[in-house]
Design a protein that fits this description.
The chain has 294 residues and is an alpha/beta fold. It is built from ten helices and 14 strands. It has a six-stranded parallel beta sheet, sandwiched between helices. Strands 6-5-8-7 form a four-stranded antiparallel beta sheet, covered by helices on one side. Helix 4 (137-148) packs across helix 10 (260-293) and helix 6 packs parallel to helix 7. The two termini are 34 Å apart.
């Protein structure tokens, strides 16, 4: 969460439980007035009840004061360059010195705080995006729901009439074959690629390129029989079994979905599950590497 001197807030810490009290403390100059500060909500049962925190739970907060120094501005400009290029950075902040460091990373690292050293470490990266192949009805619901979940949404379809009828605002629409568009827009590990046209000439072309990317999720719509035939076609085109294991088909969690909005909900539920697992697995892999080095 970021707050400026005019009490404008972007983001949140707890979904509304402590923000009002935190803002009052910030405005009164009670927090991080001269240097960084750590404090805790929910230290007592009275606190937990007052702020609506779960019984026995607490919320630890690091407050970092920022000023427009040359060093700070240069760092934010570097962060912006990485985000624009859809690359990841690990930002480490020292509570003791107030200094920050930025380090490029290929995999997201789970947010953590070293209480003894006073170090906050977290990953900064581009917004996760969903790249939709096919401007059909299911794609419209996927796009609408994904926006609510704060994904960037890109829809690709070579058919102009399909894109023209895709009347959803604040998304990127691309009239092109999916392989070219994926190569340009959805090659990073913060992207999910879903093939939803029901036309194998379009879907398969997109999937062939998707396997060449670092996308954290690749899925294709279709029944079990359709999916089996798709795998046969892709194998004939040279896709290995290891690569094929990345494909989620039939797409989405198995919730008995039948209607377009239900299918879209199942797709997004699976994407979120894979996304969150990917972050945890990346953190686990990082810990294994650290142990191996030490």
């Amino acid at each position: 969460m970021v707050c400026d001197s005019n009490q404008h807030i972007v983001g949140s810490l707890s979904g509304g439980c402590v923000e009002e009290d935190l803002l009052e403390k910030l405005v009164a100059g009670e927090l991080a007035n001269q240097s960084p500060q750590f404090f805790r909500y929910g230290e007592s049962d009275e606190d937990a009840e007052k702020f609506g925190l779960p019984c026995g739970g607490h919320l630890d907060i690091v407050v970092e004061p920022l000023s427009p120094t040359t060093e700070c501005v240069a760092q934010f400009e570097e962060i912006h360059r990485y985000l624009q290029s859809r690359k990841l950075l690990v930002r480490t902040f020292s509570l003791q010195t107030g200094q920050t460091t930025l380090s490029p990373t290929d995999l997201p690292i789970e947010c953590s705080f070293d209480y003894d050293a006073g170090l906050l470490t977290h990953t900064l990266g581009p917004t996760h995006q969903i790249f939709i192949i096919g401007a059909g009805m299911v794609g419209q619901y996927v796009a609408e729901f994904a926006k609510t979940l704060e994904f960037n949404v890109t829809v690709c379809d070579p058919r102009a009439e399909a894109l023209d009828s895709f009347e959803i605002s604040d998304i990127t629409k691309i009239q092109d074959m999916p392989d070219d568009a994926i190569r340009k827009y959805a090659h990073d590990n913060q992207s999910a690629i879903v093939a939803l046209t029901h036309d194998p000439r379009i879907d398969d072309m997109g999937l062939l390129e998707a396997f060449e990317t670092d996308a954290f999720y690749i899925g294709a719509m279709g029944s079990s029989r359709t999916s089996a035939k798709r795998r046969e076609r892709l194998a004939q085109l040279g896709i290995t079994e290891i690569a094929m294991n990345r494909l989620r088909a039939p797409i989405g969690l198995s919730i008995g979905s039948k209607t377009p909005p239900e299918i879209a909900m199942a797709i997004l539920a699976e994407i979120i599950s894979v996304k969150n697992s990917f972050v945890q697995e990346s953190a686990d892999s990082s810990q294994v590497r650290d142990l191996a080095v030490s």
